[in-house]
């Protein structure tokens, strides 16, 4: 009987710090029945492609442990690289080598994904039709949750419209998805979403601060003018000065660090 062998080629979002990469390869090699074939780090992309083979059970264990270790040792908040990132583990494909069918390998991938979701606390939905995506969004909204939907294709457009916030991946997204979404990211990097959220919150805070400042200054000027303590010319100068301060306050949003 032909030996059952599966190949796994995960991509991890670290290509510069070899100590981090070695921690991931160590857990892979610790699984009995798994052979590490190749480690290909890329400094420009800041991504490492690791290739290993083994039997179905061994490959499943090694894949899970590598994903778990990557989530522990890779900090995506400060990640930079030419290749778009989806997470600490970018992708984790399984490939049939011998004695096993593609259908069986798909089943292995599904079980590994379910284990990752359960043990690492990552909820996921898979193989959803467009109408099923809309139903999920509506269910979460009924539960009182604020739902953000990220998509790039025509099939994502209905769910993008149903969500509280629709986010389209601008660089690779279809026109329908971009037009339907509330926000269009101009890159394909999902880690830009937290940056967009922080920028939105900062913009809202600055707007509120500017409104309060303008209302207070104008109210004070009206009262002082009515009492005759401020002349028309001085009042105009003070009003223009307050407008300039509002503009300068808004320029804080131009800072790169958000």
Structural class: alpha+beta
Radius of gyration: 26 Å
Mean pLDDT: 87
Helix content percent band: 40-55%
Largest sheet geometry: 6 strands, antiparallel
Number of helices: 8
Q: What string gives the helices and strands in order? A: EEHEEHEEHHEHEHEHH
Q: Indicate the proportion of strand residues.
A: 15-25%
The separation of the N and C termini measures 59 Å
- The 3D shape can be described as elongated
State the low-pLDDT regions, or none.
none
Number of strands: 9
Overview of this protein structure:
The longest helix has 35 residues. This protein is an alpha+beta fold. Strands 1, 2, 3, 4, 5 and 6 form a 6-stranded antiparallel beta sheet that branches. The protein has a 3-stranded parallel beta sheet with strand order 7-8-9. It is built from 8 helices and 9 strands. Helices cover 49% and strands 17% of the residues.
Task: Give the structure's gist in a few sentences.
By secondary structure, the protein is of the alpha+beta class.
Task: Present the secondary structure layout.
Elements: E1 5-8, E2 11-12, H1 18-29, E3 34-42, E4 47-54, H2 56-73, E5 89-91, E6 94-98, H3 102-119, H4 130-142, E7 148-151, H5 157-162, E8 165-169, H6 175-180, E9 183-185, H7 192-226, H8 232-250
Parallel strand pairs: 7-8, 8-9
Antiparallel strand pairs: 1-4, 1-6, 2-4, 2-5, 3-4
Helix pairs in contact: 1-2, 2-3, 7-8
Characteristics:
single chain; 258 residues; alpha+beta; six-stranded antiparallel sheet; three-stranded parallel sheet; elongated
